[in-house]
Amino acid sequence: MCSSEGDCRPLGFLLGLPFAFLSLLLSIVGIVIWIVGLLLTCICPCCLCVTVIVEVALELVKAPIHVMEWFTEQIPC
User: For residue 60, what are the CA distances in angstroms to 14, 24, 34?
Assistant: First the structure.
């Protein structure tokens, strides 16, 4: 991945691919939890704990991006 400064870190990207795939599987679980949580929130909007679960599910959906960013930052070029 290349940043705006122009430094490319292809090794970090390649090393992070297996972990990004695992986090992609977690994000699929997060999508399912998110959909169920949204349905529960629509049924009973007074359930505050469901809102917290939906927020955690959204972070699971964003996990592959965070993993790849972390790996590319760890490899110095």
Answer: 21, 9, 9
DSSP string, 38-72: HHHHHH-TT-HHHHHHHHHHHHHHTHHHHHHHHHH
Two tokens, residue 47: 């359930």
Q: Is 30 exposed, middle or buried (0-12, 13-18, 19+ CB in 10 A)?
A: buried
Domain segments of the chain: what residues?
23-74
- Tens-place pLDDT, residues 10-63: 776 777 778 778 878 888 888 888 888 888 877 776 767 777 777 888 887 888
Q: What are phi and psi of 14, to 5 degrees?
A: -65, -40
Burial of 2 (C-beta count, 10 Å sphere; 0-12/13-18/19+) = exposed
